[in-house]
Design brief:
Blueprint lengths: L5 E4 L9 H14 L17 H11 L6 H15 L9 H10 L3 E5 L4 H11 L7 E3 L12 H10 L6 E5 L2 H9 L3 E5 L5 H7 L3 E3 L2 H7 L3
Parallel strand pairs: 1-2, 1-4, 2-3, 4-5, 5-6
Length: about 220
Amino acid sequence: MTDFNTILFDMDGVVIDSEKLHLMAMDQALESYKIVYDKSILNDFVGRSDESFFHYIFDNFDSSVEVEDLIKVKNSFFEELLKELQYVEGFTDFIEVTRQNNILSGLVTSSSQFTVKKVDEIVNLTPYFKVIVAEEDTQKHKPHPDPYLLGLEKLKADKTRTLVIEDSINGIKSGKAAGCVVAGLTTSFDSQVLLDAGADFVVDSYAELQERINL
């Protein structure tokens, strides 16, 4: 498996160790408004946009607070939690190897441009990627293919020679629907969950991924 000339990375849980921070900030935002909801649904929204989560809350649990206000409060909590943010172990070494092999890289995230900007301020994220697709860039979000299709378009990439790296069910479905090969990374879900979602293969680390695709 050596024929990839493009790699598209999800952000949360793939590039940065942040999935749990998003879930915590969502929960804190709802608690701040004393909104009661079924916390078991949180994992269903890993890899999806904040807007989709809060719309679901608004439609199914409590319509007393506007979605836009919930997003603003969530962002303030998330910004505070971000202070200890780090890259996923092995990411920086891996992406340096991709550069040495002239592989194009793009970031395709369900997070907002606000979140990408805040992450960039902390870990200097953007220089690693030729293009960045964030929540506002498409009308439809993961698990729809639109974010990855836009990433492919911006890089003028061949989907059959593009590897997507994802850690969530929704992200894997999005990458597969866009026609790419998808590697599941077990930072958020176990391997069987990712395989059941449609991942072509699953790895536990970037070192394993590098070996798997012969870089």
